[in-house]
Amino acid sequence: MSGIENSGRQAGEGRVKNAILIAGPTASGKSALALDLGERLGGVIVNTDSMQGYSVLDVLTARPSADEMARVPHFLYGHVHPSTAYSTGAWLRDVTRLIEEGVLSGRPAVFAGGTGLYFRALAEGISDMPEIPPAIRERWRYELKEQGAERLHRILMHEDSAVAIQLRPTDGQRIVRALEVLDASGRSILDWQSARGQPLIDRDSARFLVIEPDRGELVARIEARFDQMLDKGALDEVKQLMALGLASDLPAMKAIGVRDLQAALAGQISFPEAIERAKIATRQYAKRQATWFRHQLGPEWTRLRPGDGLPVLD
Questions:
Q1: What is the pLDDT of residues 10-66, one digit of tens each?
Q2: Mind listing the domains of the chain with CATH numbers?
Q3: Counting C-beta atoms within 10 Å of the first and last residue's C-beta, which end of the chain has fewer, N or C?
Q4: SS3 for 246?
Q5: Cα gap 94→97, rounded to integer Å
Q6: Which residue in 160, 88, 97, 96 sits closest to 126, CA to CA?
């Protein structure tokens, strides 16, 4: 398999050729399949999961182990500090940087993860967004903390009602995002979103794989994996995260298990209750992922069951 062509103006140039995309719900075996393919094909693996990009949360996000990463080069894992509100656009820029640096040249690139919007951006492109100056970003995050989401939603309704009516008044993260884009650029976030960018992969040569596990088997895998996470130090990771004193609305603070284990550490609930809540939340998340993949991924995606074995790739 070839890598990417050099940057150019012709259609398809500068995009990753012969990419392999592996999607699926949490605990479905994506990382294992990516590792097998990466080893067999001499490729590299690129994280395509929003939570596995954060540092500190090695265990709680089920990031590949150090031994696994030593077997095949892995990129964009644990490279973002939890204080950062990492976005699809930021991830796409990181992938673009890998392409420009030649990291994905000359060997197959396997994109594996559970974030549907990342796969969509990779294969279809997304609109460019303006760079937000740190002062503006900090201002609106401070305002969110001081005034609350509903107050900022009223401000957004006055400044950009077309966006505000699409957002829940309690959705602080998206409200702040709309306000900071408007503040930084003088244009509505809807204007920016209307201009779609270019895909980063060559769709004609790409292989699209999505794992669709049996629901009962997936639930059993989720239950067993969370128990293993606790044995491997998940509670210590939550303590490290708490020590950073981060805002509770940051994406990293919403990683499954964090809030429940925090509550148990604070004596608000028992540890068995925290563990059960986290397992329930993981099952619910996996169901939402599976539904999204079932309805949003097109016919070009090959549907796999865990244990089907390695797919035959031309």
A1: 334 458 999 999 999 999 999 999 999 999 999 999 999 999 999 999 999 999 999
A2: 20-128+198-213+291-304 (3.40.50.300), 134-193 (1.10.20.140), 216-290 (1.10.287.890)
A3: C
A4: coil
A5: 5
A6: 88
